[in-house]
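ugh ok fine here u go
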Amino acid sequence: MWVWRWLKCRPVSDLVDSAAAALGIPASLAERSAAARAEVAGTSADDVLAAWGGGTSVAAAPATEPAAGETPTPAPAVEQTPAAVAVMEPVIELPLAEEVVFEEEPEEPLEPVSLGTRIGTAVKVGAWTGAGLGFVAFFIFTAYWAPRAAVLPDV
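structure:
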């Protein structure tokens, strides 16, 4: 059913383009809005798009006389679309920071270290590291070995 209404109310493309440009919206949105407005106002979508593109108001459908015993219903009000308003945001200019000059500190020359001192330091560090890791490994594996240990009787 909606397909038939959509095909029946499909407006001419140049009217859609001019209305979309005047309202500042995409053409597909202008086309759907015009079809909905035309259905409410009781006119064709082409009339609505022509009004939106030219800036005039949409003419409402002629009022019909209510039958005997019926209460008249007021026609829905047709809204005017406001013109697009450009919003300007204030531009804040920040003061430029002063240029920072990077001064390199002079490198102090390192005194050479003898080969014997280097080897002695490496041996000390390696010995202490190995001893520490050995004790930690011993205590960790003892937790696994102790419950499984086979106890031999004294002979």
